[in-house]
Amino acid sequence: MTLRDPRTLHPQPPFEKQPQDPPGLDAKMKPVPADGAESWVGHGRLEGRKALITGGDSGIGRAVAIAYAREGAEVVINYLPEEEPDAESLAEIFEADGNTLHRMPGDLMDEAFARQLVKDAAEKMGGLDIMVVNAGKQVTQPDIASISSEQFDQTMKTNVYAMFWMCQEAMAIMPPGSSIIPVTSIQGYDPAPQLLDYATTKYAMRGFTIGLAKQAIEKGIRVNGVAPGPIWTALQPSGGQTQEAVTQHGAGAPIGRPGQPSELAGAFVYLASDEASYTIGEILGVTGGAPTA
Ligand code: NAD
Ligand code: MG
């Protein structure tokens, strides 16, 4: 097998400025993020599994959806109605593979919707044994003075409350052998000053993940998180960073470039699969070299 240098495997900064309105679309990014459709080869590691992935239309969630399906899992994704173009192109990838993507759009800041989503996904698939809590809101602000109560509330609702609501529902129906995987961040270890509210949620998600893991294993359910570093996704140019920061996204990571969503999918496959049966309450960093300790 040809050795490949990770530093040059994917695009490096500088990138173009490319403002988008939130929640943003993968399809509008330059370059388009690598979702693994061209590269992921399944080995049946999730055969028969039933997965719900929030934010599954784009970015990290999309790459996880592709990998999970190719590993044999049935997949439901949630996303916002504005993101239908990304969800549609993902459905086409599934169809080309001979798989069916179940789509359940809706706003996770709505408690009733977030709770019902878990029940609906389980009903659609005849059960639920993987839940990836990946939807996220990130809005850069230069100073605490510029964070509105509305922004703070929306960031908490999307990242923390929705996780709580969905995990409460999932814990009630998941059988032993299931996995819950919240997506935290390097921001949950080393908060950037311009991401104060967002980093706060990622610390909360880390604590929740480790704490819930101790409860959930008593039911045979494993809970583990993933902590990405700077990843090339629509979250960043749609308000998650300034446009100046977008041009240098990933430059500060030891590897010198942002990660692509396809480079994270393996972590999610591992954590969901029986290969990780003794891995509980762990947060797996995929950061391009920035320490998560
Ligand atoms: P992304 O924009 O592709 O995915 C985020 C998704 O969140 C969107 O696709 C959207 O469907 C969903 N979402 C946002 N608000 C929602 C709401 N109210 N209701 C329902 N869905 C909603 O970007 P991504 O970078 O792939 O983000 C996925 C996760 O990765 C997030 O939790 C993010 O915090 C985390 N993360 C990203 C980075 C990065 O550099 N991109 C780094 C660390 C962690
Ligand atoms: Mg999206």
TrEMBL record:
SUPFAM superfamilies: NAD(P)-binding Rossmann-fold domains (SSF51735). InterPro entries: NAD(P)-bd_dom_sf, Sc_DH/Rdtase_CS, SDR_fam. This is Uncharacterized oxidoreductase YghA. Gene3D superfamilies: NAD(P)-binding Rossmann-like Domain (3.40.50.720). The keyword Oxidoreductase applies. Residues 11-22 have a biased composition (Pro residues). Pfam families: adh_short_C2.
